[in-house]
Amino acid sequence: MTWLLTIAVSGGYQKVLRNFSEICSVIRSKAPTSEKVVIAFKPSIQSQLSNSNVGGWSKVCNQLYASLGSKYDVTVQFVRNHQLKESECLDLEKANQDQDTNEKTEHTSLSTDRLYDHVCMGGTFDRLHTGHKILLSTALIRTKQSLTVGVTGQNLLGKKTLTELIEPLDDRIQGVTDFLTDVNRDVELKISEIQDPFGPAIVDPQLECIVGSQETEKGCTAINEKRKEKGLSQLDIHCIELVEDVERRGPHEEEKISSSSMRSRILGQRLLKARK
Length: 276
Prior knowledge:
By secondary structure, this protein is α/β, with parallel strands linked by helices. It is built from eight helices and nine strands. Strand 6 (143-152), helix 6 (169-183) and strand 7 (188-194) form a beta-alpha-beta unit.
């Protein structure tokens, strides 16, 4: 089941940020935790995107995932899926005044806060969580034509925590595909297994930007070094901050949201069940 909130707003991402608390309040008071929560905008995010505001709209999406992702299975759509029946509509244009007057509505633009024809990224994407959604959305919102995603194969999982609990490759690829298609079905997706840390990022001459995290920035730099050796253009590197895990259960878990912590919890649940 899916619960769909449509937000009517013509004031751009600044209007959304000024009313951010109201948006979250509506979702928390009305959306069932048992259902998938989809957030769409009217007009759509995709129709409003430009080089001058892509960073701002990316901030909106990231804040929605970070604020709601611990309780809900959230998807923020760039292009509205009209096959879904609307559950609730929030018209920010009818609001008497903006609610969050202290909310920072301006976004400090980076050189990578712009639109690219071809973007790439990579990851393990085990048990798709809020951090993954922010990473994937950050890449997708900057993409006009195609997004290339490398999903780590079995031979790259050796140093991961509890590798035996990592989902099968096909399931991880399908999870990434389903999420990205749900967010924006108008972008070409090139999702495949990678058997080394570089994948297609070091051979595809069309690529212009790579999206990673604070943890993978060195890997992105290494990819550019390989591209330079091959005579290919350098990729712009856009890195997101790590997302704090508000459900962290102890020092044995990472401070950031991570699949490793999720696997540790699964192991704990299985051990408790076995003892009963």
